[in-house]
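Lest this sound abstract, we let one protein speak, letters for residues, whole numbers for local backbone shapes, and leave readers to judge:
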Amino acid sequence: MLLSIHNLSLPLEDPVLKFLVVLIIILGAPLLLNKIKVPHLLGLIIAGAIIGPNGFNVLSRDSSIVVTGTTGLLYIMFLAGLEIDMGDFKRNKWKSLTFGLYTFVVPFALGFLGGYYILGFSLLTSVLFASLFSSHTLIAYPLVSKLGVAKNLSVNITVGGTMITDVLALLVLAVVVGMSQGEVGSEFWIKLSASVLAFGLVVLLIFPIIGRWFFKKVDDKISQYIFVLVMIYLAALLAELAGVEAIIGAFLAGLALNRLIPHTSSLMNRVEFVGNAIFIPFFLISVGMLIDFKVFFKSWETLQVASVMLVASILGKYVAAVLTQKTFRLTKHEGKLIFGLSSASAAATLAAVMVGYNIILSENEAGEPVRLLNEHVLNGSILLILISCTISSFISMASAEKIAEAENEDTLTGNNHEQENILLALNYEGMVDKTVNLGLLVKNHANTENMFGLNVINEDKNESSIKNAEKILSYAVNTASAADVKLKPLTRYDNDVINGINNVVKEQKITDLIIGLEDEKGFSASFADNLYNGYLQNDDINIFVYHAAQPLSTVKRYLVMIPENAHLESGFFHSLARVWNIGKNSGAVISFYAPENIIKVLKKIIKKVNIEADFIVINSWLDAEQKAEKIKDNEGLILILAKRGMTSYFPKMRYIPDFLNTKLPNKNYLLIYPYSKTDKDNTEIRSVRNHDDFVEIGNIIKKIFR
């Protein structure tokens, strides 16, 4: 059997051996470099240079490496668009635009001056040369995301600005190429503008419609992941057809699917896992394979060009980051993180260099081709890629770690007394996936272990009941583990389901109970009786009653109805924090309908903990019902209610199940009953209840909202 790989000449040709070498590098680089505090991203690039055709020639940069590496590059841009917080993105769009202009104009100006006056390039070549430094690649984004600061304002600004500066740089490339070939005219501009506009509209408007339809119809997890890959490559292809680089298409695909892949979902975990484990490392290795150190010892002119490129790129990005930090009064570490993320030149720079290098303007007297960008620029770009990626990796990691430490300190000092234990009542196999997914949405990001799944078995110990319980709980454990959450399965033998649940609530110190309604039955008479005369008798916990008519990821907007005096209840702010998590983790728009005094509270919270939301004042519960009746397709309803005897309770709440069964049988809705035990109260909440100016709302935000 060994005869099939007896030829071990370099570069390696056997596909199994080639893939094994790459996997060993992907495995070994992080393990070795983490010990000496070197970002493994840099290690993968250096490893690519060592084993590549310009190093020991262990592997050739053939089509298999290029295809997989290209997928990794598209993956980086896709993840940047997918993980961006759309609420923050819209809120900070002008900041992103400002940074995008800074990081385009400053390096462009330095590059043009260097190319035209120092290197003596022609005007057209100098313009293209300058555009090389305006773009950047978010090569350190996976590292920043892994440290948990992807939602930081500085990251949000940088990601948004990346799209702007890359588009501008690639448009400069398209125009310069057109001018070099004598094609620029009114027809050229009209065609380019129309194609880019059409491409953007198709991806941002049509892709979400296709995605929502697909996720409603297809439950298979593998098919959902393949669908995501199809969308990435389709958007990349459309971008190329429109005359811009594929990376722009991948980024817009991430934005288009942002709301359809919840950040805490198993699908998101799969997308990130495969990208970070395989595709992105392949891209970094493929970049390293381009590096040829020998060229810098052959020509002083190459070193001169490379020096100008490094100064224009690194200094330009640094100045742009400082300007952004000063303009928006960011912290020193946030400014450094912007510089770190934006300093890496790889994808767009390399693409532009290769295009310019392949354009032959004429021939010299010796018959050699005169290129738009000469070989010195090509070789200098390789050194730029290596050094800029090194700087980006070190600075991004150091800055992100400092920001993460500061955020963790805030979380610990503000929330160390808040314990969250979520119990899922799992009785029907068809509701397991839906109930677990809701639990993943409402939980806090840091809670990866305190989730429980319970199935109550009648004490007669019927064998089929026991097997069914094992099957249901095993499914729940697997669903949660796919999102990197450890769900603890619990089986309770009891003649009464309510007693069984109440005993577990006490034993496990449960804070939130989630009960799923079967889609076909809705609020049955027996369940309504169990709810009012059983579950709601427990004053210690928040109770969620959930009806799922469609997957959570396909809901575009939630209408949240809050009754008068709801803010006076002990558990109101804790329940509200769960609603906030739904908005933050799903990306759906949250529309709050509440009396004016509660709207004031909500607006104070959103200033500190942003989600995409709007606020509508209602004067009575009748107004809320009328709004709920008009709920549209792909919208969900959330009702914050009250248990009998609470301040915000009114008799009509008894008839809400009938209203839901009659008016909204085919809609998603969630009923939330906040806990009512007053000895769980704290000073800040009492202050908010007793004063109209809500002076202590900041302390509540720190202690409850993540």
In short: The CA atoms of residues 75 and 229 lie 9 Å apart. Confidence is low (pLDDT under 50) at residues 411-417, 690-695.
